[in-house]
Structures are given as C-alpha cells and as structure tokens.
Write the structure tokens for this entry.
Amino acid sequence: MAEHTRFEKLVTDAKKNIKEISSQDAAAKSESSDAVIVDVREKDEWDEEHIPGAIHMSRGTIELDIEEKIPDLNQTIITHCGGGGRSALAAESLQKMGYKNVRSLAGGFKAWKAAGLPTEK
C-alpha cells in the first residue's frame, strides 16, 4: 500500500508541472490532426483496445522511441494511459526532453471511453 501511495505522490507532483486535456478536446485535436495521441500503456492493454489513430509507445520505452517517431519538438503530443497516472509521468518526462506542447489525457482511457468516444481493437 505504501508503494502505491508513493506512486500517487509522484503523479500528483508531475501533474503540477504539466497540462491536462479533456477527452473531448483531445478527440477534436486528434481529428483535426493538430495533435498526436500517444498511448503509454503496456502492449497487452493496447492490443485489447485503443484510441483510433493513436500511436503506441509504452511508458518504459517512450523516452527511447519518441525522437525517432516524433522529431518535432513543437508537435502537440497527448499522452494517455489507463487512468491518467502513467501519462502524467510520461508527459513530464517529454517536457524535460524539450517537447513544448505536451498534454496528458485527464482520466486516461477510462475517461475517453466514459465520454463515449471511439475505440478500436
């Protein structure tokens, strides 16, 4: 339990340094090609169901993969995970790498689905 609490503190601290975006705003930006949605969940989570048009870079390797997949530091990137914790940490990490327009999907994939937005398998 204590470790989970430490994770939550890490996420809370990260959220102070990043901007979150709602599912509706994320969907609109993605549809108009103003943003790339990056799914930072594990591969099995991605395989089960994901946001159409999103790209998968798991939390463990996003820092390694991001420069090759998204070289433009000004590109708007929306990170998302299951509930908004891992994506907040990933967003903070990308900002430290120099990405200027990073957002974390508030509430993660759960919120996206709750909003009735499209998913695919």
Notes: The chain has a mean pLDDT of 96. The longest strand covers residues 35-39.
